[in-house]
């Protein structure tokens, strides 16, 4: 696994003296993403690019022993630091005590993916890379009206987030993220800026949630996008002619029709405003191993789950699906060439024809 990177403080030398940063050190675990960001210019650049106001509450995820935390405290009204490692929590508390910033720091010990996050204006995060995608979608689907998140990712993952159509790295991850947020690449951070150096370079990305969020059923959206990126360089006509795709879509239609007859709406049957398992297939640690055409998280229709099974669908339903593609001029188009507006228009056309991507 490729570790996430922490802006952590100093380490203990064999002499027992305090290392740079003013702390008795602790042993950092590479496997847990604990690397020291040793370049103070990079730390300052992250703070500057975050655009922090003096009235802001900053949520910092993965503070380590506090190099970045101290710079954030100089700018913000309050910093809430979420750290899973109790040793790091202790070091951070020691570092800030008896400073003017002691009352401005709140430390939460726990796993950020399992924690209920408090109110914040800006998020700054240096995280284990294996939670990159789940964290992005946790932040983007929460109700808090935060202004932006500035997060350090593995460089390749960051490039997938910001990719545009026609880019080689354009994927479900990019489409899903950019539906919910504006994403900007801020800064590439070479591996030599860390001690010990990780195996990969990193990048800092700014994510600004769209306010208000788009009026889209996210499970329907992700189901469509998942299908389209099953083979992103194949035409949509070829994808939607697959027996497994047609069988699942017709099954979805039957399920929704049954719910309607019993007076249960689709919205009541599911939480339509969440990617239930965001990032399941696209954790950055698995980038090299994953299928390039099955990226990002979510719970959409996945025909690959039905391989080896007999697929049944009606000709009338197939004709209806293909008629939608023809009506939008999408039959010969490919997912890698579609914009956000193209996907939105296609989803609306399918739904208008009672074709759904989430049961």
TrEMBL record:
GO MF? RNA binding; rRNA (adenine-N6,N6-)-dimethyltransferase activity
UniProt-listed Enzyme Commission number(s): 2.1.1.-
| InterPro entries named in the record | KsgA/Erm (IPR001737), rRNA_Ade_Mease_Trfase_CS (IPR020596), rRNA_Ade_methylase_Trfase_N (IPR020598), rRNA_adenine_dimethylase (IPR011530), SAM-dependent_MTases_sf (IPR029063)
What UniProt keywords are attached to this protein's entry?
A: Methyltransferase, RNA-binding, rRNA processing, S-adenosyl-L-methionine, Transferase
Enzyme class label = transferase
Tell me the ranges covered by the Ribosomal RNA adenine methylase transferase N-terminal domain, including all copies. Answer: 42-211
| Region of interest (Disordered), ranges | 291-310
Q: From which domain of life does this come?
A: Eukaryota
SUPFAM superfamilies attached to this UniProt entry: S-adenosyl-L-methionine-dependent methyltransferases
Q: Which residues bind S-adenosyl-L-methionine?
A: 35, 37, 62, 83, 111, 126
**Which family, according to UniProt?**
Belongs to the class I-like SAM-binding methyltransferase superfamily. rRNA adenine N(6)-methyltransferase family.
Q: What is this protein called?
A: rRNA adenine N(6)-methyltransferase
Q: What's the source species for this entry?
A: Apatococcus lobatus
């Amino acid at each position: 696994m490729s570790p996430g990177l922490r802006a952590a403080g100093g380490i203990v030398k064999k002499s027992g003296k305090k290392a740079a940063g003013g702390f008795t050190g602790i042993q950092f675990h590479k496997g847990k993403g604990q690397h020291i960001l040793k370049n103070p210019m990079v730390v300052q650049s992250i703070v500057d690019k975050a655009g922090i106001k003096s009235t802001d509450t900053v949520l910092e995820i993965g503070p380590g022993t506090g190099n970045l935390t101290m710079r954030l405290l100089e700018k913000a009204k309050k910093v809430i630091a979420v750290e899973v490692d109790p040793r790091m929590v202790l070091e951070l508390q020691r570092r800030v005590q008896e400073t003017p910033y002691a009352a401005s720091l709140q430390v939460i010990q726990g796993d950020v993916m399992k924690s209920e996050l408090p109110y914040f204006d800006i998020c700054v995060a240096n995280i284990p890379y294996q939670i990159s995608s789940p964290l992005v979608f946790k932040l983007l689907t929460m109700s808090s009206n935060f202004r932006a998140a500035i997060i350090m990712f593995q460089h390749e993952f960051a490039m997938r987030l910001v990719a545009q159509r026609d880019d080689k790295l354009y994927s479900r991850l990019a489409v899903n993220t950019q539906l919910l947020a504006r994403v900007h690449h801020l800064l590439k951070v070479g591996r030599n800026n860390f001690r010990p150096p990780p195996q990969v370079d990193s990048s800092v990305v700014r994510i600004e949630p769209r306010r208000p969020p788009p009026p889209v059923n996210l499970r329907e959206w992700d189901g469509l996008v998942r299908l389209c990126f099953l083979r992103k360089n194949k035409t949509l006509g070829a994808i939607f002619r697959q027996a497994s795709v047609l069988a699942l879509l017709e099954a979805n239609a039957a399920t929704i029709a049954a719910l309607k007859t019993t007076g249960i709406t689709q919205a009541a049957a599911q939480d339509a405003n969440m990617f239930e398992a965001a990032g399941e297939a696209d954790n950055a640690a698995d980038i090299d191993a994953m299928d390039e055409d099955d990226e990002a998280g979510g719970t959409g229709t996945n025909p690959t789950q039905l391989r080896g099974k007999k697929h049944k669908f009606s000709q009338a339903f197939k004709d209806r699906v293909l008629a939608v593609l023809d009506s939008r001029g999408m039959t010969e188009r490919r997912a890698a060439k579609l914009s956000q507006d193209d996907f939105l228009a296609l989803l609306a056309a399918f739904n208008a024809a009672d074709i759904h991507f989430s049961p």
